[in-house]
Amino acid sequence: MRTFFLILIFVLVGALNLLCLYENEHWHFLVTFTQTKKLATASLLMIFAIAYSAAMDWKERKKPT
Amino acid sequence: MLRKMDSYSPYQLFVLIFLFLEGTAILMNVGFDLGRDAWLATLVCTFFGMFLVWWYISLIRHSKQKTIYDVFKLALGKVGGTLLGVLYITYFLYICARDMRDLTELIKNAVLPALPLEWTALCFMAIIIYVLWIGTQNFIHLFMLFGFAFAAILAIFFALVIADGNYDFHNLLPVLGDGPMSVLPSIFTQILEFPFGELIAFTVIIGTMFPMLPSKVSKMAMLSVLAAGLLLTLTVVVELVTFGPSIRERAMFPLVSAARNISIGNFLERIEMFIIFAILLTVVVKVCIFAYAAIQGVAWYSGKPFKSLIIPYVLLTTVISFYVSNNMSEHINAGLRFVPFFIHIPFQFIIPALLFILILIKSRWRKPNEQSAV
């Protein structure tokens, strides 16, 4: 549930951000995604966030009721 | 008098709203296209802002709920309420990311130009996680300290501006030179949304701070908006009298530039570092409140503990802050032209207004039904 919600919110906020970027810069905003350092940091952060949420979900499922 | 169950004082709310409103508004070029009338527009918006905060509190009080997420459920049912709630979480996180980017751009442009933007964002992210992790009561106490530090720095700054004597009040004249109608569009499509309309985030916090929502809370919130608005107006006046409307219009961070201009006896210089520190404090408050509002919503809908959601959502916000725009000028352009009109107005005015009407209709409809049942 936690992981699902995180991914859902990520997709929604990402979509809103892309909409604003497109409205403001048209297709020029794609340049931002070619910066490798930024992309690597962002990917690592997102992977950590999803892994953290998945681990918390897994821990909760493991807990005896 | 407040009831005993409210463990927070209205003065804490005063400081919280005050710092939240100063937040990034004191940093950015508020009313940049209004020239010498920017201060007047800010002053007018202060009074609209007082009405806004009263209206947001009334929305929560009238529905007898704690947060805006409860109000969504009450007004639209479970499915509709959840859908709208998810949209609001998205909105809060997006604005939080934009504010985070404001600060990282400030650090990059004015303090540490060689440091990559990502490093500043990561350091700031760690601060936000820590502040949220220590719990609501503790971070509100922390923000009280921030309030004193901010007030002290700003008082010293204004004293130094006067001591420096490098100002010209003729920069404010003529007042409303292009007529009052030239100011109105910017008031309603720019300054009212940023920063005053952003008080919508308090619809998540205020009900949990004060479950009974006594009238003193509304009064204190309105007083806080008045104080914050007056300070914003004063900073705009200082910016205008220090370097005039044309330079202010082009300045990226006008308050920082105004502080940089101060030179007393060629000895007391580089005051802008203190101003940047004060701005850092207010941005921490603003980002924390938006993040809190969003995470509280996620906790409400997913039924998971608040603390377990802090790290993933602050990381997500940091990632979005990297990609909010390509550079600072585009960031400002989007923040002052596109975002207020297409994102702020629906989330700050249209949806709350429709909700308010819906709740009023429902409560009117319920009353005759209850009477007929008796």
UniProtKB/TrEMBL annotation, chain A:
Instruction: List membrane-spanning regions.
Output: 39-58
Task: Decide whether keyword Membrane is in the record.
Answer: yes
* Keywords for this protein: Membrane, Transmembrane, Transmembrane helix
> Keyword Transmembrane helix on this protein?
yes
Query: What name appears for this protein in its UniProt entry?
Result: Uncharacterized protein
UniProtKB/TrEMBL annotation, chain B:
* Gene name, Swiss-Prot/TrEMBL: gerKB_3
Keywords, ordered alphabetically: Germination, Membrane, Transmembrane, Transmembrane helix, Transport
NCBIfam families reported for this sequence? 2A0309
**What is the protein name stated in its UniProt record?**
Spore germination protein KB
Asked if the Swiss-Prot or TrEMBL record annotates the protein with the keyword Membrane, the reply is yes
| Family stated for the protein in its record | Belongs to the amino acid-polyamine-organocation (APC) superfamily. Spore germination protein (SGP) (TC 2.A.3.9) family.
Q: How does it sit in the membrane?
A: Multi-pass membrane protein
- Entries under InterPro entries matching the protein: Spore_GerAB
- What residues form the membrane-spanning segments? 12-32, 38-59, 71-94, 114-135, 142-163, 183-210, 222-243, 273-294, 306-326, 338-361
Localisation: Membrane
